[in-house]
Structure formats: C-alpha cells, structure tokens
Amino acid sequence: MSAPAALGRSGPVGRAAAPGVLAVLAVLAVLAGLAGCSSAPVGVGRPVIELGPDRRLIDEPAAISVSGLRPGAEVTLWARLTDGGGRAWTSWGTFTADGGGRVDPAAQAPASGSYSGVDPTGLLWSMRLGDGVSADPPQVRVAAAELPMTIGVDSGGSTLATAELTRLQYDPGVRVQPVDGTAGGLVGDLYLPPGDGPHPGVLLLGGSEGGRPQPGVGRLLASHGYAVLGLAYFGQGGLPASLSEVPLEYGLGAVDWLLDRPEVSGDRIGVIGASKGGEHALLLGAHSPEVGAVVSVVGSGVAWPGIPGFAPSQNTAQTPAESASWTLDGADVPYLTGGFAGYGAAETAAALRGRPIDLHGTYQGTLDGADAAAIDAAAIPVERVDGPVLLLSATGDAVWPSERLHDIAMDRLTEAGNPHGARHEVYEDAGHYISGVPNLPTTYYGALPFVPGVAWLATGGEPGATAAATSAAFTSALELFDAELRPDGTPA
Fold first, then answer.
1. Which is it for strands 331-332 and 326-328: parallel, antiparallel or unpaired?
2. How far apart are the first and last CA of the chain?
3. Which of 206, 240, 445, 451 could form a Cys-Cys staple with 213, CB 3.0–4.6 A?
4. What CATH number has the domain bearing residue 49?
5. Domain co-membership, 332 together with 420
6. Tally of structural domains, the chain
7. Between 393 and 18, whose confidence is greater?
8. Measured between alpha carbons, how far is 118 from 486 in angstroms, rounded to an integer?
C-alpha cells in the first residue's frame, strides 16, 4: 500500500507538492468532506470515518476508526494538521479491514506507517514534517485553543474519504494575566479557569531553558479548574540572567502571593516543575508549609550547580566558576559538585557547531564518583514536604539519570516512613521531555533548542514511549492535585 495519496508516492517526508497539485488536492478534500465519503475502488467498500469525541481537551482520548470497508481490504489511514508556522504535519498507517469491515487503531496495528504496534494515539504523536521543512521548533505550536486536523482514508492511490477532528488545547474561556511588576518582583503569567472561582492553586516551574514556563501546560491545567501561576525565575528582565544563585525566597514568595489571590481557594497549593524546575519544586515544598503537593517531572533529589548563561551574539558560552543553583538566607543551597560544570570546553565547542549537548554522562559520572556523604549533603530534604510527592522519571532521559536522581528522593521519603504516600513512576524508553502537552507529535523530541540559534540539548527517548509518558505524567499529576487540593471532591 502506498503512502497517503495527498502526500505523493514519496510519502509524508518526500518532496513538497507543487502549488497546482495542492490546489487540486484541496478541492478533492472539500468534496470528500461534504459527503463524508466518495466513490471507492471496486472491492474496497464505502469507507466512513468515525471520530469522537470532537472538541474535547487534548489530554482526553480521541477515537479514530473506519467502517464500511470490505473485509480484508487494505487502506491507508492518515492524519494531517498545520501548525502556527504554516508547517504541515502528517502521520499514516496501512491497515487491513477486519471481518466486520472496520479499521480501528485502538485494536489493530498498522502493517506499515509512521508508527508501529496497537496504539489508539499513534496517528496523533507520530506526525512528521516533509523533507526540507525545519524541525525548529520541534513542537507543534498553535496559539489558538482549537487544533483542527484532517483524517483521511486512501486506497489505490486515491483519497476515499476525509473528516475533520478538532482538539482543544485548552478551554477557550481560560484567561491569562501577566503578573510582571507585582509585589515581590514576580515575573510570569496567571492562568485562570472559566467561571468565578475560587479555584485550587498550582505553581508551574520550567527548567534550564529559563523564561516563562510552558504556556500550553499552564492553560491546560487551568482548563481542568486550577488557578496556575507560571513563574519565570531566571532569564527574564529583572531576574537572574542565568540559572545561578537563584534565591529560593523568590519562589517561596510566589507561593504566598498565589495563596493570597482572591481567585485561589484553600490554604495550600500544589507545585509542579520539570527538570531543574523539578529540583526547584522539591526545594520549595521542603521549605514551605503552604505547599500541599509536589510533582517533580524528570527532576532531581539532589541539588546541582548552576548552569552558565550563553552569549548568542558571540556564539560562545559564558563559563563562570562553578556556583550554586539556589540560595537560601543568602547562603548557597548545598549541591553536588560536577554535573553541567563537568561539561568540557571541547564538548561546548562541538555543541556550538551543531552537535546536541549530551549531558547524561557528566551527571552520571558525577554520581558514580561521589561518596554517600557528598550525596547526602546535597540531597533535598524531601521528607519535610507536608504532603504527597510524585516523582516522574524516564529511562531514556539523555539529559541526566532522572530515575536514579529521583530514587535518592524516594529513598529519603521511605526512610522517613513515607507518611503522605509518595510515589515514583518510571516510564520505560521515554526521553527527558515528558512535561509538555499530551497527544501532540513527539517525532522530534530527541533534541530540543537549549540556546536559541546557538545550541541544542540531547533529550533522548523513543517517540512513542515519550508520547505515552507525556500523557501518563500529565494524568498522574492531575490526579494528585485533584486528590489533595480538592479534598471535598469539588468538580473543576
């Protein structure tokens, strides 16, 4: 079976179609969409694409199937969307209709395609770009709430039917308020759910990329009924330029500020952070009684040195002497010497020439060379968190050994009796970037821009495993917050 007809015989990563061809295909897609199906080749049947539910939040399941086929007919089922940069993303799978004349990716594996195995979300996460289309950024970015995509069925080089599926990246009623210039010098954005509230509060922290944390995650959490403060803590005006000597008091002040908001209910909030933001989240939870639940996504149970800033204009790395990532009461938070600081000049130069920065070995080597006393001195006192801790790790993490680093935290919690029921979930073969919005393409998540226009960071993982972990991580975090911040079961 060939690739989707609308993509040409070279498949979705082949040469771009000529404008005239695209115009013809657009007309064919409209005509097919009006009827839901078109005349099919003899012996294939009359396929009907069945989708559901439409216009649901993107983290919720979406069913895609085809009925009306001749049993045993071979067809290609494909999906396509266009992102905010005008880039077309496409996935596909070749299937054989079952005895009832159906194709259902939730029950059948494609014989070939952009993914393998039985996977109801395969067409969503395995989308890819055409040849010559830049994968920078590697994520699908669409600012609008609605994310429309076309689902199609091909056979014999012809498109037999198409249908439209719209996913909601967030509830259109979510409101966003910048908080820059508020008391305490906070920088970030407040995401508020639809309705008057008040709502449970969540503090969202990004990682070593700096700046404002993922707006897609902030909006999606708000869509589930949480007032979310997406907090920048370096890399923005008025904040430290790099992740070095960041005062914990700044984050602790953000916890107090969020709780004092009239839109926020309860007397405690949740905190969720990814990577260095996970390390940050555990530290804030350990030092604030107003934090009632902590989620660390591929974070660390020990504190590490700061990460130097880069100067893109000179295309060089600024490499100051090793310093702490965090301070408290004017003193360094103890850290384990090494990690990023062990990344040498030769590796930095290679990264500036285009090779993704591979940090895993430096962190792994530091742990291997450290004695128990050094690790204990740098360990975050997670046993002080007055609430449950959820640790989410990935075995394919190429940034640092998140499973091993979270084991350090889990061991401390276990030794303290684990009074709040902490959990450590480990996702096999997933990469470092499992903290994003679920059910979006993960094809290019093996490396992410670290310094825009300068260097990329190897993040690792198999795309399908990373996609599954991203969905599972978001669901687990949401379940924890629902249980701890909505004790009376108040709906979102």
1. antiparallel
2. 46
3. 206
4. 2.60.40.2240
5. yes
6. 2
7. 393
8. 35
Q: Give the chain's largest Cα–Cα span.
A: 78
Q: What is the pLDDT of residues 339-351, one digit of tens each?
A: 765 555 556 655 5
Between 33 and 188, whose confidence is greater?
188
- Range 287-299 average pLDDT: 99
For residues 32 and 153, what is the distance between their CA atoms, to the nearest angstrom? Answer: 10
For residue 242, CA distances in Å to 126, 326, 451 come to 34, 11, 12
For residue 140, give its domain range.
5-168
β pairing state of 88-96 and 158-168 = unpaired
Contacts of 264 (CB under 8 A, 6+ apart): 197, 198, 199, 200, 201, 227, 258
Give me the torsion for CA of 56, 140, 279, 265, rounded to 10°: -30
74's CB contacts (< 8 A; 6+ apart) are 1, 94, 95, 96, 97, 111, 155
Residue 490 is assigned to a structural domain of this protein = no
CA 334 to CA 376: how far, in whole Å?
10
Q: Which two tokens stand for residue 314?
A: 């000179």
353 to 138, 349, 350, 374, 454: CA distances (angstroms) = 19, 6, 5, 35, 8
Q: Which amino acid is at 263?
A: E
What is the torsional sign of CA 443, 461, 274, 342? negative
* Burial (0-12, 13-18, 19+ Cβ within 10 Å), 348: middle
- State how far the Cα of 99 lies from the Cα of 80, in Å rounded to an integer: 28
d(CA 136, CA 183): 36
Round to whole Å and give the CA distance between 325 and 300. Answer: 13
Q: Are residues 162 and 187 in the same domain?
A: no
Per the domain annotation, does 104 fall within a domain?
yes
Residues in the chain: 492
Structure-token pair, residue 206: 């990004």
318 located within any domain: yes
pTM: 0.89
Catalytic residues: 275, 397, 432
Answer whether 281's CB lies under 8 Å from 273's CB.
Answer: yes
